[in-house]
Amino acid sequence: MEYQKLKEANDKFAFEEFKKDADRGHRICQFQIAMMYENGIGTEKNLEKAFEYYEKAANQGCAISQNALGCMYENGTGTAKNLEKAFEYFQKAADQGYARAQFYLGCIYEDGIGTEKNPEKAFEYFQKSADQGYARGQFNLGCMYRDGIGTAKNSEKAFEYFQKSADQGNVRAQFCLGCMYRDGIGTAQNKEKAFEYFQKSANQGNDNAQCNLGCMYRDGIGTEKNPEKAFEYFQKSADQGNANAQFNLGRMYRDGTGIAKNPEKALEYFQKAADQGNGCATIKKLAKTEIEKYSVSKSAIPSVILISEKSVAVQIIQQIQPINTNHQQQPQLKKKKQQQPQQPIQLIAVKRPFILNVSESSAFSSAKKQTIQID
């Protein structure tokens, strides 16, 4: 408590001193005051005042303030949103060699926001930012080399820039590096290295890395099999809305892998995977198939069911208990033989197990009785 009071007092004193010099026209102090207004340090938060002081400093050529002003115009913070103005101030800061502004300018050219789309210009500014060691610039440059945007595809160069960015802790670069090591793209295949980078990215909260890590623990790729760990990482990823992880979690609940069997939980996660707007089409289709299977198994059993290729049909009169392990005599089902249907009988899934006492088709000379378990 005493520390907090001392800090607040120091912040207030710093704000008052910086403001004196800022009002005298000192651009660095103007930037400092703008930042304090923006974050509520030493004074109450005031975004309009923050914009005012960033603008004063930016108009005196302060690159970091020009970049900050570009962000405020881009997001409509402390002023009306104006993408053309955002581009203008990012350009001014980038021209002074400010790496973060060069990165933002690359993004603007890549997406065509506030200016015309220009992949080659985007590549140029990502390159400038990356060469100054800016991790996000390195990552985006890696993506452009990987995908062949603004330049020819170059997997080795992509790997190089992902590595530089990942070494600075960029979570997305770590994930991409894991994929390249796993698949042997731009480098020799190395499942252990793939596991290492997926783990780094997963531990920073990347849902795709968490899902991939779950797969590696489940299948024993790059590490020993560990169903419980697989379940743990699928759960983390699923909680962030990852459809692939939700589907895999559903399968683990369905099969009792890494967790006790729970059909209701399995259905819950299959449903989530099917409903995800950002899920891939294949995952959605597989999830819907699982949901349909569950729905059929829980529905009322129709009276007619196909037993064999000979189209022997029986009418189920009563559901009975499954065969027990002690081989005790089980109650039988009454049966009612039916005529061959005019149309083929549809094969359906049933909730198992059922014991049916049926007679063979009349095509046989004798009516031999048999007991069948449908599994």
Core attributes:
single chain, 375 residues, mainly alpha, Serine Threonine Protein Phosphatase 5, Tetratricopeptide repeat, two-stranded antiparallel sheet, 4 strands, 59% helix, disordered C terminus
What does this structure look like?
There is one protein chain. By secondary structure, the protein is mainly α. It has helices at residues 2-23, 27-39, 47-58, 63-75, 83-95, 99-111, 119-131, 135-147, 155-167, 171-183, 191-202, 207-219, 227-239, 243-255, 263-275, 281-298, and strands at residues 304-306, 313-315, 354-359, 369-374. Among the domains are: 7-96, Tetratricopeptide repeat domain (Serine Threonine Protein Phosphatase 5, Tetratricopeptide repeat, Alpha Horseshoe), CATH 1.25.40.10; 300-375, no CATH class. The strands form two sheets. A two-stranded antiparallel ribbon has the order 1-2. Strands 3-4 form a two-stranded antiparallel ribbon. Helix 9 crosses helix 10 (171-183) and helix 13 packs across helix 14. It is globular and about 75 Å long. It starts with a helix and ends with a strand. Residues 300-337 and 345-375 have low confidence and may be disordered.
Uncertain segments of ≥5 residues (pLDDT<50)?
300-337, 345-375
Order of helices and strands: HHHHHHHHHHHHHHHHEEEE
- Look at the structure and give the mean pLDDT: 84
- What name goes with the CATH superfamily of the domain at 7-96? Tetratricopeptide repeat domain
Strand content: under 5%
The shape, in one word, is globular
CATH topology value of the domain at 7-96: Serine Threonine Protein Phosphatase 5, Tetratricopeptide repeat
**Count of separate DSSP helical elements:** 16
Total number of β-strand segments? 4
Terminal Cα span = 68 Å
Which oligomerization state do the chains in this entry correspond to?
single chain
Q: Structural class per helix/strand content?
A: mainly alpha
Radius of gyration over all CA atoms, rounded: 33 Å
Query: How is the largest sheet built, in terms of strand order?
Result: 1-2
